[in-house]
Amino acid sequence: MRVAIVTGGAGGIGGAIIQRFLELGYRVASIDLPSERHVDGIIGENLIQIALDLRDLDQFEQTVARVVNHFGRVDVLVNNGGIVGSNADDGFGTLGNWREVMAINLDAVWGLCKAAAEHLARSSNGRIINIGSINSEYPSPGGGAYPASKHAVYGLTKCLAFELGGQGVTVNAVLPGAVETGMTRSHPSFESWSARVAACSAVGRIGRPEDVAAAVAFLASEEAGFITGHGLYVDGGLHLNLVR
Questions:
Q1: Could you say which architecture CATH assigns to the domain 3-242?
Q2: Which residues, including other chains, have CB under 8 Å from residue 237's CB and lie 6 or more apart?
Q3: 35-57: per-residue pLDDT in tens?
């Protein structure tokens, strides 16, 4: 039975990824900040939750070891946890915002890949799937930290694909566009924003967490064993409008 680690698993895209994995018969370790809906401990036979701040890189090796001790192995790492940060009119924002976004969106990806690599190499089909963004290749207005972090995640994905391929580990990125989650729905301008984005997409709607989860499940599967160093758009064709 394959074992996956998923960060940002408390809800939204991460929750959908975990649900898809469980439906496929995986055992899953969910990593997220401690909260009422994400309490550290054993949730069921095939699911454990680990309360962890992704800025605490010193805990990563111990965390991966905890998963291995509980489930016996690690086959898939999904680096989904991340933050948008604050917008800035000048495109720069504050140094504090820059460092926080980079710590969670980039440093944590690097740290967990490093901590899990040895265990993934022992799997017959080791997989790393990093959740980037459409902003991994295209800029976004209002602040440079988020797109810069997602560009870097995509670059790291390609480098690790080259480095880990000889150990039987594939490394890919999923690049979502706009996705409807609890966080985006709570924004006061969600309705007008989602309508604008839907009008710019090729399929006439924004994404759902399940759309991203389906792409992750494919890249984690045996069928995707010859795909590595790739960035898969899951954006309904939104990027096609951005290049006009």
A1: 3-Layer(aba) Sandwich (3.40)
A2: 201, 202, 203
A3: 988 999 999 999 999 999 999 99
Cβ count near 23 (within 10 Å): 10
Catalytic: 233? no
Pairing of strands 41-44, 47-51: antiparallel
Residues in the chain: 244
Out of 26, 146, 154, 233, pick the active-site residue.
Answer: 146
